[in-house]
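Notes from the pairing session

We agreed to fold both candidates in a single pass and log them together. This is the raw record for the first candidate, unedited. Please don't reformat it; downstream parsing expects exactly this layout.

Candidate A
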Amino acid sequence: MSATQTAPALLDPMLRDTVSAASRPGRRVIAQPVRVSLSIADDLAGLADEWQAFEQEADCTVFQAFAWQSAWMKYVAPHQMVTPAIVIGRDPAGALLFILPLAVEKQALCRSLIWLSTDLSDYNAPLLAKDFADRVGSENFPSIWRDILAILRRDARFSPDAVILEKMPEAVGAQPNPFMALSVIECPNGAHLTRLFGT
């Protein structure tokens, strides 16, 4: 299934508190952001070559690497009620802007949109093109996110009742995490960072 960003904006109760990052101090507004074409995939194997090539140059963590995600799908997913909902964002020329490794988890009373492999991943984040912040910008992400939710809800395989995206870092590589432009709450668990140099 594929769709483009022309999906109508959705008034979603889960997004009612969404704040544009453009209104936050220190964030610049991109006047003419690049148009984003969206598609959803549920088959990791079909994305293997493109995903692995993209992760070599993208900003991401090791937990978004194809090797990690595919190993989780092979060994853990069969024991859970999870359907991958990988969101691919491209520019008008077809170049990748981001990959969101998401999934829909079926529980007793609801279907939740989560990060794929969230149970075993320390950090959940998108894979972002190195120039994502310059071409799209976090401040424009809330409208893209509304389009993503609209596309997911049009397909019975992916339509969630709730969105639960946990363990997200503030930055992905050298870029702000665009999910921080949504209404988020601080995680009670701290994360410590040590930079290693040399060999």
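Candidate B (folded immediately after A)
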Amino acid sequence: MNEELFSGKADLYDKYRPSYPSELADWLCIKTRAQSVADIGAGTGKFTKCLLNKPWKITAVEPNRDMIVRLQRNIPEVKAVEAPAEKTGLPDSSIDLVTAATAFHWFDEEKFKEECKRILTPNGRVAIIFNGKIVDDTVKARDEISRIYCGYKGHAGKSSQEDGDRFLREEYFSEVEYVEFEHSISLDEDGFVGNTLSRSYALKPDDVGYEGYVWELRELFKKCNDFGSVELRFKATCYLGRF
């Protein structure tokens, strides 16, 4: 992956991106009984934080410098490793559970698989997690603005959600369990704009068209808000598998 895509966006990402349902960490704990977890592609620690209340040793792995500095500030009690998903530097057979939360689509799939095989204990498992947006009229309009200004073409992974689901269930893992939880966040105008600007494809302040992009997003918020806020809904999905 391009490890600099999120450079300069750590603050926006940390402040305005959604977290994950606590039920997901509960489910993983019950299913795996893991003692050690590596959260790979951890970003600013959005999902890593969800793991904190469980009885496992946590390591967060993240290649982007801005992101990992923010992660270390957020959760200094967690060991953080600045490294790519495909070459974590973690010891052989040291991890019971690998998690990748809204990060797998940035990895080299086969190299990541080989790295997981190396660092996982014999019965270790991998949880591929996505915080997928639930598309409504507001999200459609926002994505169209991003398409015009940024060339946004959709999710960075497979060509469709259906293709990604089929790949993980039928090709990537030898066996897999699946769970999903819906949740939402409520954002004011700055939050709505900030959530969009935190994305990898979003324009940065020095980019041509940035001011127009932000103006369009603010105008959309004014049209779509309900008493000063917009609710964005998500479906957190998890594929818990073995190779």
